[in-house]
Design a protein that fits this description.
The protein is an alpha/beta fold. Among the domains are: about 120 residues; about 120 residues, no CATH class. It is about 30% helix and about 15% strand. The protein has an 11-stranded mixed sheet with strand order 4-5-6-7-8-9-10-11-12-13-14, with helices on one face. Helix 1 packs across helix 3, helix 2 runs antiparallel to helix 3 and helix 8 packs parallel to helix 10. The longest helix is centred in the N-terminal third of the chain and has 16 residues. InterPro entries: F-box-like_dom_sf, LRR_dom_sf.
Length: about 500
Amino acid sequence: MKQTSLAARPPPEVLLAIFSYICPHALDYTYESAEDSVTETGCMLCNMRDLARVGLVCKEWHRAAQLLQYRSIRLDSVHYCGMEGELSERRKRSSFFQKQSSPLEIPEQRMRLLYRTFQESESIPALVWLLKLPYMTRETCKQDLARLVSLLPNLRYVDLPDGIYSDDSSCASLKAILYTRCSDLRKMTWMPGSEKNFVDLWYEPPWVSLEVVELSNMKIENGDLVQALSSMPYLRHLKLKDMQWATDEVFDPAFEFGQFRAIKSLELEGSTNITIDGLCTYLSRPEVQKTLESLTLTNTSIPAHLIYRILPLATSLTSLSVNQTISRVIPRAEVQLLSSPTLTHLSYEIIGEDTRLTRPAPSYYAYLSESLWAGGLPSLIDLYVRETTFHKRLQNEPNGANAGVFAAGEWTQKMTIFEKNLDHMNWTKYRVGALGNGKLLVSPIYERPTTSAFNSDFEAENRASLLTVPGSNMGIKEKRSSRQDLWR
């Protein structure tokens, strides 16, 4: 009796793990736009095409490949490989029956083919959680997008036109469909013009499963803000950008409209009426101390030198980002050193004004290096700074003239420093480790250039060749006779 080996029929989770190497972006479950979630592991359209080929081998492979194909869908405008040049030449060969297509029409055609696939299947639309589209496609094809999302009952995230966020009349039909057919959305943004729509969430919440909310430049009273947020029981990330009407009153635990919800991630940008006192009041609540893990402060009214007041209260904080433009040197005599036993990620991007005679930014980075040598951040793993010579501070200061200000003891932690200034595009990385006797080894990290076009295509071709369908032509000049992946 012939027995089938385990390798011939692997478990579904093993197949999913293997197929994810063919199409890495199929595992993108982040609530980020198509522009912000681009991967650098080869051509994403070609990877999806190869995954569709794999699904033709047998029924077991087809079920696993189909789940990866449709769980997180991404419609790109072009191929990021040599295939785009050949396809462009094919499109130029227009005939009487087939007109030449412009590059802007390609994603629109793929979206309509995807809509046809959803219409012909009852099971595939239920698999879709995320749908990511190019910016111009979602701005110009609003009606097609409305028809598409109307078939997706389990949709959690979709790239939407900007008019949705500001209650533009051109997006009324699309927003009505999102209200009635997409009740499981996890991320939404509100911008100027949608104040009434946001306040009405308190009475009729259309998306009770919202996890990520962004509010930008809206004129909302503190009471309406707190009440609307209280209607989101699963909220974990909140961004307040240029919310000038929001004051410290929203963080008052005795506020008559209720308490500000305890969340995992809070991001404040340009909201100048929220002060350090209001934030400390919010962090003094026990449920907030146990919940808050990430805090981002960008160009707020909270002075960068007062961050030390936040850290003792945020007992569960693991990520802190401070982005501030300063005009004066740090008042060192009035400031305590930074201290947090839980912080693992610190983005300390302090930029000084160029119009000053004295450069104020170096005083802040000297204060940061002093805090590191004092052992106040023992769990820190990643440090981002806007000073290209910050790594030298860790090498020079312990044996320099200011060595007396550091706490006694040896450096025990290992971390990575990311440095750049305003003139640099990429981060320079340094690895920091202890040598003993109060000395540090700071070594630059050189990465292999795997993100180049040649290496990306080379790796993608070799990865896909491991699971080539027998008898198929993997060359670039194949005839697209298969109808399984026409929307790619």
